[in-house]
Automatic annotation (TrEMBL):
Belongs to the short-chain dehydrogenases/reductases (SDR) family. It comes from the Eukaryota. Keywords: Oxidoreductase. This is Retinol dehydrogenase 13. It comes from Chanos chanos. Gene3D superfamilies: NAD(P)-binding Rossmann-like Domain (3.40.50.720). The keyword Oxidoreductase applies. One of its GO terms (molecular function) is oxidoreductase activity.
């Protein structure tokens, strides 16, 4: 009886069932594809120290949980101490590692960057992995405390200064690694050397792309300068991830598009999935002897042609040095 009614239902709704199954399998396959690769390294980090910028949320927080689970002392360098302290409690709980500390860092202030670097130089015996993860995307035309365009200032200049200030400690701790979290958005980027703060023609996307291209060029030039020191450098695109990064875009989305946007958010990478390439670059043994490359989904990837321009990388280095006041 039951069998007959099931069969009758299937016959009557054959098309709808077929379409639902097709869409379901398609969405499942798409979600699997979006999830990307997972870092399979079992490397332990007992006795090592890691510093991660912007680790109170998003992929920075997931990276911190993973590296703390591997035994590292993890320093969360964040601008909002309330959020950072709450994240630290969660990271200690999830990793079972109590050696997770919070330090203040506002990348939109060169003074704050210098203060953190001084604190680390004076109080940390070693620094094995520096992860320049913090980022801001598509914000309005804002400037940093020092008058730089906000996205270039935070995403590139703040990390440029922090890294340079910590190089001696990284060299002393070699073999050590620097990981710069860039983005696929670098492919649309260009470095506007004659208007670096985009004063003449600001665009939120244009500025983000410039800053993410700067991350790749910085990685390239830094790797060249660090040859033979035992400090290696990597940059990466983490994927498209459900984090707070789109906070400045949300207000500009038409209200009728928001449900669609929310649905898309369900299909993209989770923060844990988004952290995998950063973790891979930070710990995977296979990368020990490579430096200066760009990664995506736990594998090397060719960056855009403008990200391989060595003259531009050197010019950006010189410009950044003079902007942040480095000798
Ligand atoms: N999500 C994606 O789809 C995606 C794609 C490609 C690349 N990325 C890159 O991945 C990195 C991490 O982004 P996410 O997706 O995890 O974004 P998120 O959830 O918004 O996290 C960004 C982190 O950066 C911090 N930050 C922002 N401005 C700062 C400042 N002035 N000083 C110090 N910290 C600051 C934030 O602190 P607050 O919480 O205090 O704001 C937060 O901790 C970024 O570099 C981003 O460009 C992300």
């Amino acid at each position: 009886m039951m069998e007959n009614s099931l069969k009758q239902f299937a016959d009557e709704h054959a098309t709808a069932i077929g379409v639902t199954a097709f869409v379901g399998i398609g969405l499942y396959a798409f979600r699997k594809w979006m999830a990307g690769a997972v870092c399979r390294s079992r490397a332990k980090l007992d006795g090592k120290t890691v510093l991660i910028t912007g680790a109170n949320t998003g992929i920075g927080k997931e990276t911190a949980v993973d590296l703390a689970t591997r035994g590292a002392r993890v320093i969360l360098a964040c601008r909002d101490m309330g959020r950072a302290n709450r994240a630290a409690v969660e990271i200690r709980q999830r990793s079972g590692n109590g050696n997770v500390v919070v330090k203040k860092l506002d990348l939109a202030s060169l003074q704050s960057v210098r203060d953190l670097a001084k604190d680390i130089q004076e109080n940390e015996e070693r620094l094995d992995i520096l992860i320049n993860n913090a980022g801001i995307m598509w914000c309005p035309k804002w400037t940093t405390e020092d008058g730089f365009e906000m996205q270039f200032g935070v995403n590139h200049l703040g990390h440029f200064l922090l890294t340079n200030c910590l190089l001696d400690l990284l060299k002393k701790s070699a073999p050590s690694r620097i990981v710069n979290v860039s983005s696929l958005a670098h492919e649309r980027g260009q470095i506007y050397f004659d208007d670096i703060n985009l004063e003449r023609d600001y665009g939120p996307r244009k500025s983000y792309a410039q800053s993410k291209l700067a991350n790749v060029l910085f990685t390239r030039e830094l790797a060249t300068r660090l040859k033979g020191t035992g400090v290696t450098v990597y940059c990466l695109h983490p994927g498209v991830i459900r984090t707070e990064l789109s906070r400045h875009a949300w207000g500009r989305i038409y209200f009728w598009m928001k449900p669609l946007f929310a649905m898309v958010m369900m299909l993209i990478k989770s923060p844990w999935e988004g952290a995998q390439t950063t973790i891979f670059c930070a710990v995977d043994e296979s990368l020990q002897n490579t430096s200066g490359l760009y990664y995506s989904d736990c594998a090397p990837k060719e960056p855009a042609p403008q990200a391989k321009d060595e003259a531009a990388a050197r010019r950006l280095w010189d410009l950044s040095e003079s902007m942040v006041g480095l000798d």
